[in-house]
Design a protein that fits this description.
about 120 residues, about 60% helix, GMP Synthetase, Chain A, domain 3, 3-stranded mixed β-sheet, cytoplasm, KH_dom-like_a/b, Ribosome-bd_factorA_CS, RbfA_dom_sf
Length: about 120
């Protein structure tokens, strides 16, 4: 249990450092200004940190390429800010949970609209 709490705390610290860097530290023109870190998962052995980013607007592929090319720089900054024996390798992944949530919301709305139309037809008869 203590290991889980430690990796969770480290994940949160990595998220803070990477979020700060995305705001002010990275000068790559490929990286869109509308990038936010939604979650960070650090493996139990602290070798890898999966950073989930949400990209609003702009070219998703070029932004992800820019983030991957800045991975070494970001890893070095994480190492400066968080004192660990092993600095995790940063792996960026697109977080599409917002799009999936919007899709599910649209499906629920359509089903509710269909149900209300059916109730109206039943009431007319």
């Amino acid at each position: 249990m203590a290991s889980y709490n430690r990796t969770r705390r480290i994940s949160e610290e990595v998220r803070k450092v990477v979020s700060t860097m995305l705001i002010s530290g990275i000068k790559d023109p490929r990286i869109n200004s509308m990038v936010s870190v939604t979650d960070v998962e650090v493996t139990n052995d602290l070798r890898y940190a999966y950073v989930y980013v949400s990209i609003l607007g702009g070219d998703t592929e070029s932004t992800l390429t820019g983030l991957k090319s800045a991975g070494g720089f970001i890893r070095r900054e994480v190492g400066k800010n968080i004192k660990l024996r092993y600095i995790p390798e940063i792996i960026f992944k697109i977080d599409d949970s917002i799009e999936k949530g919007m899709y599910m919301s649209d499906l629920i709305r359509k089903v509710n609209e269909g149900n209300s139309e059916n109730k109206d037809k039943d009431n007319e008869e």
